[in-house]
């Protein structure tokens, strides 16, 4: 086992998911969804807490595995959750309420992100989390850059496309498009960018205040 694998296992084993989180993860797997790992979830909770996030928007909520972690980090934040499957959003809302979220802090909006994101408030969010719909990641990122306030952060899940981005032999349109996006964002002086390798890759972009 490599050092990276040992470290990953050590971290995962130390993270305590609640029964509600474990149930949501099981639902996600049964539906064929790809929930974030506990380590990535804990990191998202840390980002939400460290940034003092009061308004969060999550695109591609699924059944709420990521949402539950975000709420652990920012329990009083208003969460706007977007997913094109109303049944998934209903499960996510049920889990969030069971975890203690107040109904007034939850905005569960079913529909296509391409239709909904243009209607969201400009510079209205402290944290934007984009699920791994990589076929539309470029468009979602452009909206996210408009939606996040100065000093706020955007997170893209599975941003290295499951390791394909780091493989020079992979030249499919999605993978090549992600490489181009990374090059573009690295050159923008008003953005601070970081990529973490775990869980398919985690892209973090902060808009400088």
UniProtKB/TrEMBL annotation:
<keyword id="KW-0489">Methyltransferase</keyword>
<protein>
    <submittedName>
        <fullName>Methyltransferase domain-containing protein</fullName>
    </submittedName>
</protein>
<dbReference type="InterPro" id="IPR029063">
    <property type="entry name" value="SAM-dependent_MTases_sf"/>
</dbReference>
<dbReference type="Pfam" id="PF01596">
    <property type="entry name" value="Methyltransf_3"/>
</dbReference>
<keyword id="KW-0808">Transferase</keyword>
<keyword id="KW-0949">S-adenosyl-L-methionine</keyword>
<dbReference type="GO" id="GO:0032259">
    <property type="term" value="P:methylation"/>
</dbReference>
<dbReference type="InterPro" id="IPR002935">
    <property type="entry name" value="SAM_O-MeTrfase"/>
</dbReference>
<dbReference type="GO" id="GO:0008171">
    <property type="term" value="F:O-methyltransferase activity"/>
</dbReference>
């Amino acid at each position: 086992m490599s050092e990276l694998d040992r470290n990953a296992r050590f971290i995962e084993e130390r993270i305590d998911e609640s029964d509600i989180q474990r149930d949501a993860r099981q639902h996600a797997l049964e539906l064929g969804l790809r929930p974030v790992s506990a380590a990535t979830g804990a990191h998202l909770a840390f980002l939400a807490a460290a940034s003092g996030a009061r308004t969060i928007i999550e695109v591609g909520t699924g059944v709420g595995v990521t949402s539950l972690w975000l709420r652990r980090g920012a329990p009083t934040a208003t969460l706007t959750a977007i997913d094109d499957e109303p049944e998934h959003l209903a499960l996510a809302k049920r889990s969030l309420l069971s975890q203690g979220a107040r109904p007034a802090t939850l905005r569960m909006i079913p529909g296509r992100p391409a239709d909904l994101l243009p209607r969201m408030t400009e510079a209205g969010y402290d944290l934007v989390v984009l699920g791994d719909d990589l076929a539309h990641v470029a468009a979602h990122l452009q909206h996210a850059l408009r939606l996040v306030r100065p000093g706020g952060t955007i997170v893209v899940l599975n941003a290295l496309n499951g390791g394909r981005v780091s493989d020079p032999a992979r030249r499919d349109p999605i993978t090549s498009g992600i490489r181009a996006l990374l090059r573009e964002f690295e050159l923008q002086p008003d953005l601070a960018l970081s990529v973490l390798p775990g869980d398919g890759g985690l892209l973090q972009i902060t808009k400088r205040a």
